[in-house]
Amino acid sequence: MIDRKPPGPDTRRRSLMARVLQNPLGAICLGYLVLTILAGFMASSISGHHPNEVFPREIRLGPSAAHWMGTDSSGRDIFSRLLHGTLPTLRDASIAVIVASLLGTLFGLVAGYFGKWPEKIGTRVADLLMALPGLVVLLAVRTVVGPSMPLMMIALGIVMSGGFFRVVHAAVLGVRNELFVDAARVFRVSDTRIILRHILPTVRGPAVILAANLMAISIAIQAGLVFLGLGDLFAPGWGNLLNGGFANIYIAPLELLWPSVAIGLTCVIFFLFGNVVRDELARTGINAAAVARGQGAADGNARHRHDPAAADEAPTDGQAVLGVRGLVVGYPGADGRVNRVVDGVDLRIARGEIHGLIGESGSGKSQVVLSIIRLLPEGGRIVAGSIFLGGRDVVRMMEREMDRLRGRYVAYIPQEPMSNLDPVFTVGSQLVEPMRIQLGLGRRAARNRAMELLEQVGIDDPKRVFDSYPHQISGGMAQRILIAGAISCGPTLLIADEPTTALDVTIQAEILELLRELRRQLDLAVLLVTHNLGVVADICDKVSVMQSGRIVETGSVGDIFADPGHPYTRALFAATLDDAPTRAPYASGLIEANHG
Amino acid sequence: MLWYILQRFLASLMLIAVVIAGTFFILHLSTDKVARGILGPDATQEVVLQKKQELGLDRPIVTQFADWAARALHGDLGRSWFSGEPVITAIATRLPVTLAIITAATVLIAAVSLVLGVLAATRRGWIDQAVQVLSVMGFAIPNFILAILLVSVFAIRLGWFRAVGYQSLFDSPAGWLDTVTLPVIALAVSGISGVAPQVRGALLDALGKDYVRTLRSRGLPWRRVVYRHVLRGSMGPALSMLGVHFIGMFGGAVLIERIFAIPGIGQMSVNAALNSDVPLVMGFVVAVSFFVVLLNLIVDLIQAWLDPRVRMTT
Question: Per DSSP, what are the bridge partners of residue A323?
């Protein structure tokens, strides 16, 4: 079920505990912990034996009605010893966790809230505490303090407080400059009060998760220390049972099994409990997203009806470089319905044609583009329709065949230049790699061709750029490189998804000029996605207008600019005319288009 | 780049120097207790004082540290109070054993995490679920408990491996495998639980990157993009985590060596702690610290090799 209420911080705070309990795993974990502690308190009455009571004739017995887990090598009841060891083990582990959480929370709050030198010192100290493994530090501590478990656990707590500090510090940094904290400062609420009332609650979630994990670690380390003989060998505890059992591992392996299971299970439970809390805290965010998606799906289904008949029509024109028929793209929505983001799109592009695809953000333009190269984001699926590239339908094509078409028949220029170059490879190697695979070029030939391409797209210093990494070049240059990559394997159709949106105005014009030039030189067909009418007027031959997953109008640029037929197209024009910065290029383009 | 790595190297060296100094002071907090730990609880105050004098513990602590540090810089970590053996020798004979096990475990962690992480991220479905469940369990179960269970089942019950002892890899490769397999698995499981989800997450993150789509749009097969581009770009955090686990295993080895009766540096230091053998404990801390610095350096270098952005940082 989806919680349709917008989850605010208030509901989250009140119901976290309740939600952990409602989670089956959370309930099991809490149940186990409560039962374990209860069993520890009632150890004597449950087991019916004193932990140190010796049954001289019943040494190393297996489980029986009298001794549920059998007896150890001194003839003592293992079950009783295990139960009596519960509270001391948990108590020792708690000492470490309490010390760690108190120190970590206190210093984390102060460092995160005040910044400056408390932050610097705190971070340094945390680094120091976490530099060596805890057990290594504890060995040193043990050398000095002797077998005192509480002292060692305090030391462990101090060591672990470094991790706690980091978590709390990070959480405070996240809210330090939030509006409500600023507001409180403006109203001269004291720092202590702001920290306690406004910041501490936001830290609570991460702190609970960490404390649960540290509890698991502390139990393990406590038992481990005793097992190594570094603790008090006469104090009751799970580690002692382990120590005793290990001596008899060949004779009575079962004796070792019980404390091992107790320690392992309790550690797992604490850990799982932490995970449940984290999941429940995270679910708030997921629910919000799910609600948004669910509503989107409902809207989408209400607005459109897809006509399935359109999908199965064969393409009528073999001349087209691209023929899209009845394309439907869907994403899985809430409760299993398919949310259609593209709903029956037809598109035809002839050789050498520059075809503009315009529409507002979210109208489905990019989804059409990504369908054509069959690289929809995860979850996206072509539900119906056909996409003919050079007379072959790619919708049902094998992936291997599709790989051969990509780059060689259809190429793609993305919107955001910087994020579309792999940051860890040089520009050159990213250009060379596809050519070597697609065209079978040798290393040297591919390199030479890459240099030519870089020159062709107007890069002055191809040698230097070839050896550069993406973070060393400008956005405009990156877009030129992406264009070079797109034309590198000699495509027939170029698909450009808002290729100028992320660029400065002057560079926009240059990139458009480059596209126009390439079209002339290489006789390319171009599908140009944009929301900028000026761009369409400037460069396109034909234009299709897209709204809410459908194409509402198609025609030559001259016709549509002169007489927009669809109300949505007219609305787009009106919006552009109000928009001062794009007006000048649009107006000049309009005149050009009308004259041409 | 060199400057950047040198800076990081010096910072970690400084950090470790402070840690070592801190440990030295902790170890000398209560010299009475230490002397009594050597002599036994019944020693008279007079004998304790005499012992402290003999060990030089009666001097001001700063003098003691300056003295120790000056010697340590020349490679002299003193002698064990218990056996009289030079600390350097004691460590040199035992460290290779521990190092062999930890290194083997690190290789195992890297290999298994890579396979599981890639499978989980690219196949999703049940294998993804399984990896996630296993990683929680593997992380939560203490490694020495796991070791005890492994010994009970595979060494004692089934007899597949030897339960105790150690053979050098150079003396007998088969014997080495026989003795280290179980300890290495016991150490590696929690590391795998930590690193595999890291690999998975980083991969999933990287798979959604724009450049992946663009590379695919040029006709690069999916496999090639994943193994050549995505993996390389997303290995940074997983590598750091692997480094953390390598260091952490020095702690784990203390327990594991006890269970498998492996004569490594962990066993040595447990005995040293029990005997209040301060120079030997100090030597242990110095040895581990050395690897902390070394490993940070190695991770930084690999990181720089993997990612040019790190290389360019100044």
Answer: A348, A388
Is there a contact between A434 and B218 if contact means CB atoms under 8 Å apart? yes
Are the C-beta atoms of residues B150 and B231 closer than 8 Å to each other? no
pLDDT tens-digit readout, A491-519 = 889 998 888 877 777 878 888 888 888 88
Q: In the predicted model, is pLDDT for residue B204 greater than 50?
A: yes
What is residue A530's three-state secondary structure? Answer: strand
Range A112-146 burial, b when 16+ CB lie within 10 A, else e: bbeeeeebeebbebbbbbbbbbbbbbbbbbbbbbb
CATH superfamily of A308-409+491-596: P-loop containing nucleotide triphosphate hydrolases (3.40.50.300)
Note the CATH number of domain A19-44+76-289: 1.10.3720.10
Q: Does B133 contact chain A (CB < 8 Å)?
A: no
Contact B148 A242 (CB under 8 A): yes
Phi, psi of A326 (to 5 degrees): 55, 40
Residue of B27, B285, B307 lying closest to A136 (CB–CB): B285
pTM of the model: 0.78
Q: What is the pLDDT of residues A46-90, one digit of tens each?
A: 777 777 777 777 677 777 766 677 777 776 777 778 888 888 889
Of A135, A411, A419, the CB nearest to B211: A419
- Letter for the amino acid at A67? H
Q: Where are the beta strands (DSSP E) in A94-158?
A: none
Decide: residue A440, CB within 10 A, 0-12 exposed, 13-18 middle, 19+ buried. exposed
